[in-house]
Design brief:
six-stranded mixed beta sheet; alpha+beta; single chain; elongated; about 35% helix
């Protein structure tokens, strides 16, 4: 390890209090995915921290969602393929939640909306960037990518994510570390769809036979959709939202549902989508029609040879720090699937350890902030120039 790398790690070792202070500021800003002012306010605070460390930050305007931020720390040893430190600023929580349950720490755990998923990861990434900038740069260039819409499938930031990852040396995605302390080496892909079923209205007592119930047709389709689920193969289909009808005494002219498909491999996606399309096209209730629209999508994180080598490097570093880790497979989706899909070695959930994401009980293990930052910094140091 070079003197510069040692300096970076020594500085990180003393930063838990500062990291916790920045985390408190970020958590206490409402930043749901559709709250552009809130997501941008989180970005403004991160950018201010980085600017205070002398790190340039570029803003990439995004219409309708928070802007994306890209910070860069030059490499000190030649080469131009960066390591990308990635994280999203949006949360699943609506505006006003922070006022009801703001950031607080109790018994070694920090609480608050988005504290683990993934504002702690944002803080960690910012501090690792600062550590290396203070030390004169890592051997390789570093890019910090702070996106804005992951919780809804990254509809605006996906092209930015993919462009940043193409040609990069590696991506370290700072989603929360598993409650076990492990990282994530594989994730499912997900397709999020809306189905619109059209029927024909009729009086339910006076001329029932003239009607064509969209709700009845949707019920048949729902049963068929769920039958695609194959737990042994990791394929699930869930109709999670349903609405429809006009009144209790009217045969329903319209019904709508939202569908969640999760899968492991691209081949699984193709098969499931073919079966879904066949169900949509068929009509159990004569005279009804249906239209399916994809509203959002995540790609799976599939571990290739490069990603396996990246994990092994991270695992070796973590073991040397007295915190051995294993790779876990996660059913949840993340932006790491997009970076893996363009061929960039990717490791996910390297952020500080937490649990119960998306719930009022979401927590962060405060004592993991510095060790996970160290593991990231040392992994960067261990990556080979090429």
């Amino acid at each position: 390890m070079t003197a510069r790398q040692t300096d970076a790690l020594r500085w990180l070792d003393g930063q838990e209090g500062a990291m916790l202070a920045l985390l408190e500021e970020l958590v206490n800003i409402d930043s749901g995915s559709y709250d552009k002012p809130g997501v941008d306010a989180v970005g403004t605070r991160i950018a201010a921290f980085l600017a205070g460390e002398g790190i340039p930050v570029a803003t990439i305007p995004v219409e309708g969602y928070g802007d994306a931020l890209k910070a860069e720390v030059a490499g000190s040893g030649g080469g131009n393929r960066p390591v990308v430190l990635m994280g999203h600023r949006d949360t699943v929580f609506p505006k006003g939640v922070v006022a009801r349950r703001p950031f607080h720490v109790a018994d070694g755990r920090a609480y608050g909306p988005g504290v683990a998923d993934m504002k702690a990861g944002l803080v960690m990434n910012a501090f690792v960037l600062a550590a290396y900038h203070r030390a004169g740069g890592a051997t390789v260039p570093l890019v910090g990518l702070f996106t804005s819409d992951e919780e809804i499938g990254s509809p605006a930031c996906r092209p930015i994510i993919e462009e940043t990852a193409r040609g990069a040396r590696a991506v370290l995605n700072s989603e929360p570390g598993r409650p076990t302390g492990n990282v994530v080496t594989g994730r499912k892909g997900g397709v999020f769809m809306q189905l619109d079923v059209l029927g024909k209205a009729a009086h339910s007592g006076g001329n029932y036979a003239d009607g064509r119930s969209a709700i009845l047709e949707l019920a048949h389709k729902t049963v068929a959709f769920h039958a695609i689920t194959d737990l042994d193969r990791g394929i699930t289909v869930n109709v999670g939202l349903v609405s429809g009808g006009q009144s209790v005494n009217t045969v329903a002219p319209r019904a709508i549902c939202e569908i969640d498909l999760r899968y492991v491999t691209p081949a699984d996606r193709a098969e499931a989508m073919d079966r879904i399309a066949a169900i949509v096209a068929a009509a159990t209730v004569p005279g009804t029609t249906a239209h399916l629209a994809i509203k959002g999508e995540f790609l799976p994180l599939v571990q290739d040879e490069g990603a396996r080598a990246l994990f092994e490097t991270y695992a070796q570093v973590s073991a040397g720090l007295g915190r051995p880790v294993e790779g876990e497979f996660a059913g949840g989706c993340a932006d790491s699937g997009f970076t893996a899909s363009v061929g960039c070695p990717t490791l996910c959930a390297v952020g500080p350890v937490g649990g119960k994401a998306h719930s009022p009980e979401e927590y962060l293990e405060v004592g993991s902030l510095v060790p996970r930052a160290r593991a990231m910094a040392q992994t960067i140091a261990a990556l080979t120039i090429g």
